[in-house]
Design a protein that fits this description.
The chain is an alpha/beta fold and 295 residues long. It has a single domain, classed as Aldolase class I (TIM Barrel), CATH 3.20.20.70. Helix content is 46%, strand content 12%. The chain has twelve helices and ten strands. The strands form two sheets. It has an eight-stranded parallel β-sheet with strand order 5-4-1-10-9-8-7-6. Strands 2-3 form a two-stranded antiparallel ribbon. Helix 2 runs parallel beside helix 3, helix 3 packs parallel to helix 4 and helix 4 packs parallel to helix 6. The longest helix is centred in the last third of the chain and has 19 residues. The radius of gyration is 18 Å and the shape is globular. The termini are far apart. Keywords: Amino-acid biosynthesis, Cytoplasm, Diaminopimelate biosynthesis, Lyase, Lysine biosynthesis, Schiff base. Pfam families: DHDPS (PF00701). This is 4-hydroxy-tetrahydrodipicolinate synthase. It is found in: Cytoplasm.
Length: 295
């Protein structure tokens, strides 16, 4: 069957929010958008976890959405993060994304307050009924503290503009259950699980490592879609070591921003409570980039 969110299949990159002297670096953000478009990336996800949304002000959050949509100018899709543990705040951000011309909204599950399954459903329902753009539900219990259960996704799938799931539970069983019981499209929320999720019916990835090697992640997706499973496996194993040895050094986006600084694509600046890699971590990261062929 055709899945609701198939228009959102492919490579999405969860881009970072460039900072300079504590402020949003708008010029560098525009460069990032152009870099991804030139690589052939299908869509961009600004102001998510990788975009340090928890430490951006509401005004900065909205500004990033506006810049990315305006810079992309329809050359690739834009699905900004608009989630919150406050339904009213999530609604405000999603309305802003829709007003600015975003193609969809990525809404993380409410975090810290740990809603019931009914609470999850009512949260997404409240936003979906008041905003017309498609919504991708981001399920990442490792960060939010609670899982959105497959049975709740069955209910969410009845809402017309709930179309996709960013699946970051690490459970292929959960993904399989959602795919077999709904018409929602699943996008991987973990780079290293992209190929396994494709094998059970996933249709793409919202990638972190795509910030630096978007063409390689595209090569994996393209190989798989063309039936070249051996080629896809080769890309998976190549990317796996980069994901493990880079992203495993610290909490995202700490090592990613450090890598982008080494590659001359970012200042590497973070906003507290995120802190830079220590000297040992930087040494390991540099060797990882050398081993991959990036330095």
């Amino acid at each position: 069957m055709a899945r609701k969110g198939s228009a959102f299949a492919g490579l999405w990159v969860a881009i970072t929010t460039p900072l300079k002297n504590g402020q949003l670096d708008e010029a560098k953000l525009k460069e990032q958008v152009e870099f991804q478009i030139a690589a052939g990336t299908h869509g961009l996800c600004p102001v998510g976890t990788t975009g340090e949304s928890p430490t951006l002000s509401h005004e900065e959050h909205e500004r990033v959405i506006s810049i990315v949509v305006q810079t992309a100018r329809g050359r690739c899709k834009v699905m900004p993060g608009t989630g919150s543990n406050s339904t009213a705040e999530a609604l405000r951000l999603t309305k802003w994304a829709a007003k600015e011309g975003a193609d969809a909204a990525l809404m993380v599950a409410p975090y810290y307050n740990k809603p019931t399954q009914e609470g999850f459903f009512q949260h997404y329902k409240a936003v979906a009924e008041q905003v017309g753009i498609p919504i991708c539900v981001y399920n990442i219990p490792g960060r939010t503290g609670k899982n959105i259960e497959p049975e709740t996704f069955v209910r969410l799938a009845t809402l017309p503009n709930i179309t996709c799931v960013k699946e970051a539970t690490g459970s292929l069983d959960q993904a399989s259950q959602i795919l077999s019981s709904t018409d929602l499209t699943i996008l991987s929320g973990d780079d290293s699980l992209t190929l396994p999720l494709l094998s059970v019916g996933g249709e793409g990835v919202i990638s972190v490592v795509g910030n630096i090697v978007p063409k390689d992640m595209l090569a994996l997706l393209n190989a798989y879609s063309q039936g070249d499973t051996k080629g896809a496996e080769k890309w998976h194993h190549k990317l796996f070591h980069l994901c493990r040895d880079m992203l495993g050094l610290s909490t995202n986006p700490i090592p990613l921003k450090a890598a982008m600084k080494m590659l001359g694509r970012d200042t590497g600046e973070l906003r507290l409570p995120m802190t830079p890699l220590d000297a040992a971590g930087e040494t390991k990261l540099k060797q990882t980039l050398v081993n991959y062929g990036l330095l």
